[in-house]
Specification:
Strands 4-3-2-1-5-6-9 form a 7-stranded parallel β-sheet, sandwiched between helices. A two-stranded antiparallel ribbon has the order 7-8. The protein has a single domain, classed as Rossmann fold (3-Layer(aba) Sandwich). Helix 1 packs across helix 5. It starts with a strand and ends with a helix. With 162 residues, it is α/β, with parallel strands linked by helices. 38% of the residues lie in helices and 22% in strands.
Length: 162
């Protein structure tokens, strides 16, 4: 079983939400488990896209109550770790897709790259070393391309793809 992490804004407008939904749908259609932080925004929209298309979702919650999970999370893990749960989202994922996002997403990007996880970015942070793009994140312009790229990267880097 392949696990794809979705990281991104905890609040988003409907336009960005639709993009996240389409990513979640694409993950479900490939038979992968969607991993996220389990709350709102990109997490909720992508989990909804996965669930409404037959997928399984895993939410790593910052608090201690499973009831805090958005309604599209099948398996809620109440970590009690606050933002430190970002590392658990990364470690539980075989690869990640970043959709927009703030500093929490930036921390997840850093953890993912530190741990050698393939990452695809969609309207998210651009990582530079000096004036040169870091190269650790593969960028995509659409939800469909982000899903295609993340599965291709998993196949290339670890022989895992759905």
């Amino acid at each position: 079983m392949v696990y794809v992490g979705i990281i991104g804004d905890s609040r988003c407008d409907e336009s960005l939400g639709r993009v996240a939904y389409d990513v979640g749908r694409g993950i479900a259609e490939r038979g992968a488990v969607l991993v996220c932080g389990g709350l709102g925004g990109v997490m909720s929209w992508s989990a909804r896209g996965a669930r409404e298309n037959g997928g399984t979702t895993l939410g790593m919650l910052p608090g201690t109550d499973r009831k805090d999970a958005n309604p599209y999370i099948v398996h809620a893990v109440p970590t009690g770790l606050g933002e430190a749960r970002n590392l658990l989202v990364v470690r539980a994922s075989d690869a990640l897709i970043a959709i927009s996002g703030g500093y929490g997403t930036l921390s997840e990007l850093a953890f993912a790259l530190l741990h050698g996880k393939p990452v695809v970015g969609l309207s998210t942070w651009r990582l530079l070393r000096g004036d040169v793009e870091d190269g650790g994140v593969a960028y995509a312009g659409t939800a469909a391309l982000a899903v295609q790229k993340v599965f291709s990267l998993m196949e290339e880097t670890c022989g895992r793809g759905a």
